[in-house]
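dude i think i finally got it to work??
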Amino acid sequence: MQSGHVKRVETTPFEGQKPGTSGLRKKVKVFTQPHYLQNFVQSTFNALPADKVKGARIVVSGDGRYYSKEAIQIIIKMAAGNGVRSVWVGQNGLLSTPAVSAVIRERVGADGSKASGAFILTASHNPGGPNEDFGIKYNMENGGPAPESITDKIYENTTKIKEYLTVELPDVDIAKVGVTTFSVDGGTFDVDVFDSASDYVKLMKSIFNFESIRKLLSSPKFTFCYDALHGVAGAYAKRIFVEELGAKESSLLNCVPKEDFGGGHPDPNLTYAKELVARMGLGKSTTQDEPPEFGAAADGDADRNMILGKRFFVTPSDSVAIIAANAVEAIPYFSAGLKGVARSMPTSAALDVVAKHLNLKFFEVPTGWKFFGNLMDAGLCSVCGEESFGTGSDHIREKDGIWAVLAWLSILAYKNKENLGGEKLVSVEDIVRQHWATFGRHYYTRYDYENVDAGAAKELMASLVKLQSSLSEVNQIVKGIRSDVSSVVNADEFEYKDPVDGSISKHQGIRYLFEDGSRLVFRLSGTGSEGATIRLYIEQYEKDPSKIGRESQEALGPLVEVALKLSKMQEFTGRSAPTVIT
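look at this
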C-alpha cells in the first residue's frame, strides 16, 4: 500500500470565482492556471459541514470534457488531504450529471454507507477542448446542486483563501474498475473506480416498463435515432437502448464520448444537433431516406434532451406538459398519481393548463434546478421541466435527458400497445396534435443573443424595467408597433418565495403579460463563460382548434416584432438577429 502525508500549500485568491446556479464555468486556460482549481475545491471543502468531509465518501466524475482527467487526479489528492475517507469515480472519469445524482442517492458502499456529495466536472452544453469551456459544481447528499447558502460561502472562501490541503500520491488508473487503497498519515484512503452505467440503468429499470418499450422498438414500423453529440450520454446509450431495449446499434449517432465533443457544440437544439435534425427530415435539404419515427439528442453532461418526431420538433415546454398529462397511465413509477408539477418561469404555460385540468399542485419557479429539488424533497412535485431542454422527475435531483427519452418511448409504447400490428403507428406528431386539441396550443420561441457586451445587456434590461412603471405608455408603444396584438395587463420583475424554505429570489426575469395569455420574458443568462447572453422568450396561447395548426414563426410574428422594438434590441446590442432561435 502506498502512503502519503497531508501537505499545506500556500496560495492567494483569484478574482471572480463565484459559482452560479450551474457551478463555476470558465475557459480551460483559466482553470489551468496554477492553484486556480485547487482554490475552488478547497473553498468548497471549507464551506461544507465538517462531517460531510472528514471520514466521508464523495463522488468525483463528469462529462469527460478536456481537462477532466487532470482535474479528477487533483481533486482525489485534495480529498485525501481534507480527511475524506473514500472517493467514488466513474470508469474513465465519466458520469452523466443525472447519474451522479442517482449514485449519491442510490449507491451503497461495501460498509453500507452512501456518498455525502459530489464534485461534477462539466460545463453542460458548452463546447469542450483546449480553447473552450470547463466547469465544476458541487452536489449535496440529496443528489441536487448546492443551495445558495453553500455557494455563497464557497465564493466568500475563494476571496480570502491562503492555503489548500493535498497529499502527494501517485495518479489512480481511472480506466480500470477496482479499488486502490492508500495510507495517509496512518489512516486509510481509498479510490473506488466503478462501472459508470450500472447504477443508473438499474434506476431506469425500476421506473419504466422496459418490456413494453422493447416491444415498441421491435416493431418493424418503429424506427429510432439517438444522438449523444459525443457527450457522456454515449456511455449509457448502448447499454440502455441496444443491450436492454433491443434497438439496432445503427440507431445510435455520435455515441462515443470525446474530450472536445467531436469539435461540435453539445447543445441539443435545432441549430447544433445538425446531423440528427437532417436525419429526422427537418434539415434545410430534404433527405432521400424516410426519416425515423422518433429521434432524440442529449447535451454534454446528458441532463438535457431534445425530442423529435418524423419531420416534427417537440418544444421542451410542450414535452414536459405531454409527459405530465400521460405519466400516470404510461409510466409505472407514477401509477399512484402525481404529487404536483412545476416549471421554470420562462417555460411556456402548457404545463399550467395540464395541472389545472388534472387538478394538480402547480409551481412556477426561477431558472435553476435547485428550486425543483426543494419542492421534490418536500414531496410537492413529481414532474418538472424548463424550456432550455431540461426535463425531470423526483427520481433524482437533476434534470435527466435519458429519463425524458424513456418517458416519451413509454408514452409511444402505451399509445400503440393495441396497434403494433396495425397499418400505422400513433406518431410523435399525432400525440402532440391531440394534446393541443385537448389543452390548446402555446406557440413558443426563444431568441438567444450570445456574448453581448455585458454593459449593453444591463442597460437594455434596465430600460425594460423602467418602462414597466407606466402600462398605458407600454400599451401605446405596443399598439404603435402592432395594432393586432393584445394589451399588456401586467408587467413585473419575477420574484419567487420558496414555499419550502421561505427564501426569496428577486430579479429573476422581466415579464410582460398580455390579456390573451401571451407573454414576453427577458432574462440575462449566466451559462456562457464570456460576455452576457440575453434570452428573449415569446409565447402566444391559442385555444381555437381552427388556429392550432399554424407555423410557429408565422403565429408569433406580431409578438416578435413587438418584443424587438419594445426592447430596442438592435439599438442596445448592435445585433440585427439572434445567435440561436429555438
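The mean pLDDT is 94.
im so relieved honestly
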